[in-house]
Specification:
The chain contains 13 helices and 19 strands. Helix 1 (38-52) links the parallel strand 2 (24-28) and strand 3 (56-62). With 419 residues, the chain is an alpha/beta fold. It has 2 domains: 2-212 and 388-414, 3-Layer(aba) Sandwich (Rossmann fold), CATH 3.40.50; 215-386, Glycogen Phosphorylase B (Rossmann fold), CATH 3.40.50.2000. A 9-stranded mixed beta sheet has the order 1-4-5-3-2-8-9-10-11, sandwiched between helices. The longest helix is centred in the middle third of the chain and has 19 residues, at 162-180. One of its GO terms (biological process) is carbohydrate derivative biosynthetic process.
Length: 419
Amino acid sequence: MTDSTDLPSSAPAHDAPAAKKPIRILIAADTFAPDVNGAARFAERLAAGLVARGHTVRVLAPAASRKYGTFDETHEGQPLTVYRLPSWRWYPHDWLRYALPWVIRSTSRRILDDFKPDVVHFQSHINVGRGVTIEAEKRGIRIIGTNHFMPENMLEFTLIPKGLQDRVIAMAWKAARRTFGRAEAVTTPTQRAAEFLEKYTGLTDVRAISCGIDADNYSPNFEPRTENRILFVGRVTGEKQIDVLLKAVALLPAELDAQLEIVGGGDQKRNLEHLADTLGIRDRVTFTGYVTDAQLRAAYSRATVFAMPSIAELQSIATMEAMASALPVVAANAMALPHLVHDEANGYLFEPGNSRDLADKLLTVLTAAPDALNAFKNESLKLIESHDINRTLNTFEHLYRGEAVPDQINNGAASHSAE
């Protein structure tokens, strides 16, 4: 990573597909790589995919450490200029950092005047999204907004008394309405998430656009299983309800010798390790922490079934990666997960928070005959086809240019036309 003392000069244009002029895009995010979460991964893949198509893309995000400035970075194999804002740790959270509003505003003014993007695409209405959209609107720059955030998910990382939490959530949704109201188009990963955003903000015509995934990066494994391995991938935090999964594993018959692998880091790791000890399954549970991309792909390949007990998924990239790896999925029947998991087709949905129901569904997959297991696997591969990253990139290119989005089924929901 190379530090630049001055803002970089405009990058040379490249020929875009279909002979259209390349677009200059500023992606603004409150969380970006090396952060490990769905929103950060989406922003990274989107930026890299657009660069690969010949567009000029830059990213504005809080610094991941005390080192801030303008950097030349490589993400997903593509070169990117990333403006890293001075940031501070949000100490109730195990890694989250934030930038101060007045710093965001002043930096946004400088970047927008120097870079002169055709479009600003912000990834949440919180600090960075709010600041950059205020300045972009003043300059008449086209704005696209994507929501990956639910205020309720952040409550456990605040010190707000329970009696005030409902009021704070209502204020957060009002703030979302103001920021997303500046956008020419608003998107979110699934139709369920779009309906949720419309309900709590009063916005209309929110588009459901899948985060997308490059299925070629994953290796489906149809070899006969030699062990019963359950996999979870994600942040080890409260809203993921990993405790429900641990309790379900404890309910499985001992003769299955089911092994649980939990990939990811977070503030609940120590508590969950203690729970595994209490349940008497500590020897069958592995907490890997954060892993490399290669290690993650290997984890998908050796698993028998993927479990997602979370009740707060606006899409779940980890579930999509599992499906691209030809894994059956057992997931909570909550939020956007039913868009990915079709009950009795590529896995099962279980009653949220119900460890017994989760255990029963896991048992069904783990004891399935080879033909039945392969049917689950093939259905996961079939269903993930509609989440191809190229479809996602195509859709955003149309939105960036202000073009009508061709009629298509994207992520189980018909795309709207651009204004």
